[in-house]
């Protein structure tokens, strides 16, 4: 009688529980052990998705708990990396040598040129200038009519030294001044009734100033007063003195003039202990105080206040 043939080792059995195919050599399904998922105690591995209806299925997709766990783990890893970087980076920076940026040369601004000689003296004084200082003949006086002129003189130091001055006016539309220190009254302008005349020793910053006041507005179309023909003995304009109120520093002299006539005036002062005046109208300081200069000409009397500050 022929032997019964051995079982076919290649025969596959389909598991009705997990849907896997396994070899007939197994007594029960090696994937689910023949138990439904609800009876699975979690001790065996390798069971594939129970819902798979065909052999060769794979494990089920990630559960919400696994997703949450994965996200938390990644977050903790990122936080740990950030903490490590924040601690290590300053230590690395302190150990590194920082190369300072190359210095950029600073270009100094060039001062704008000025037209005021007193504000910016010449680069070098004239070659023959030997004066180291000077004083002006006046520090404050008043002009009484339009076009009236007066020359401010200067005494250089040391004695017998040579000096050259640059003259400027703070308000040339009120009082102008020329290169010789001769000022001319123009008149009040926009409420301004005075100007500061400044003399600067050429090539230096040594300067002196004098305040010149005006008591008038320039008449429309007025022209500068002209001298009367010599010897006429008559007035061609209103009589006036070149100054009506001024201050003399110690040791100075002031030349007085009368305009509007060619007659010879008679000069005098009310207090010769303060100032004296000669026949030509040259006032010389005599002492400290205030006096009045009197000029009599063509039957009129003109006066000027003289203040001596020395």
What does this 3D model show about the protein?
With about 300 residues, the chain is mainly β. Helix content is about 10%, strand content about 30%. The chain is built from one helix and 20 strands. It has one helix at about 65-95; strands at about 10-15, 20-25, 135, 140-145, 150, 155, 165-170, 175, 180-185, 195-200, 205-215, 240, 245-250, 255, 260, 265-270, 275, 280-285, 290-295, 300-310. The strands form six sheets. The protein has an eight-stranded mixed beta sheet, with no helix packed on it. A three-stranded antiparallel beta sheet has the order 5-9-8, with no helix packed on it. Strands 14-18-17 form a three-stranded antiparallel beta sheet, with no helix packed on it. Strand 10 (about 195-200) and strand 11 form a beta hairpin. Residues about 45-60, about 115-120 and about 220-235 have low confidence and may be disordered.
Mean residue pLDDT: 77
The arrangement of helices and strands along the chain is EEHEEEEEEEEEEEEEEEEEE
Number of helices: 1
Low-confidence stretches: 43-58, 117-122, 221-237
Helix content: 10-25%
Strand order of the largest sheet: 7-10-11-4-13-20-19-16
User: How many β-strands, per DSSP?
Assistant: 20
Amino-to-carboxy terminus distance: 167 Å
Structural class: mainly beta
**Rg over C-alpha atoms, rounded to the nearest angstrom:** 57 Å
Shape: rod-shaped
The fraction of residues assigned to DSSP E strands is: 25-35%
Report the major sheet: 8 strands, mixed
């Amino acid at each position: 009688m022929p032997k019964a043939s051995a079982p076919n080792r290649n025969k596959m059995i389909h598991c009705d529980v997990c849907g896997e195919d396994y070899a007939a050599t197994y007594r029960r399904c090696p994937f689910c052990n023949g138990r439904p998922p609800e009876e699975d105690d979690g001790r065996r591995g390798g069971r594939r998705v129970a819902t798979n209806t065909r052999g060769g299925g794979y494990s089920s997709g990630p559960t919400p708990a696994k997703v949450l766990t994965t996200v938390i783990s990644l977050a903790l890893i990122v936080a740990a990396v950030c903490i490590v970087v924040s601690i290590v980076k300053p230590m690395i920076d302190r150990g590194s040598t920082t190369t300072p940026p190359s210095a950029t040369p600073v270009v100094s601004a060039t001062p704008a040129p000025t037209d005021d000689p007193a504000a910016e003296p010449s680069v070098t004084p004239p070659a023959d200038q030997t004066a180291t200082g000077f004083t002006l003949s006046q520090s404050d006086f008043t002009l009484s009519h339009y076009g009236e002129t007066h020359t401010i003189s200067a005494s250089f130091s040391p004695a017998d030294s040579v000096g050259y001055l640059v003259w400027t006016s703070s308000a040339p539309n009120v009082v102008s001044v020329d290169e010789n220190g001769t000022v001319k009254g123009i008149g009040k302008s926009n409420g301004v009734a005075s100007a500061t005349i400044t003399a600067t020793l050429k090539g230096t910053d040594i300067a002196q100033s004098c305040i010149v006041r005006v008591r008038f507005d320039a008449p429309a179309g007025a022209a500068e007063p002209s001298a009367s023909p010599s010897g006429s003995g008559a007035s061609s304009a209103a009589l006036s003195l070149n100054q009506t109120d001024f201050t003399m520093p110690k040791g100075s002299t002031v030349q007085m003039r009368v305009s509007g006539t060619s007659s010879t005036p008679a000069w005098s002062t009310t207090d010769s202990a303060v100032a004296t005046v000669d026949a030509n109208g040259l006032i010389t300081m005599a002492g400290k105080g205030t006096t009045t200069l009197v000029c009599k000409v063509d039957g009129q009397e003109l006066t000027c206040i003289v203040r001596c500050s020395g």
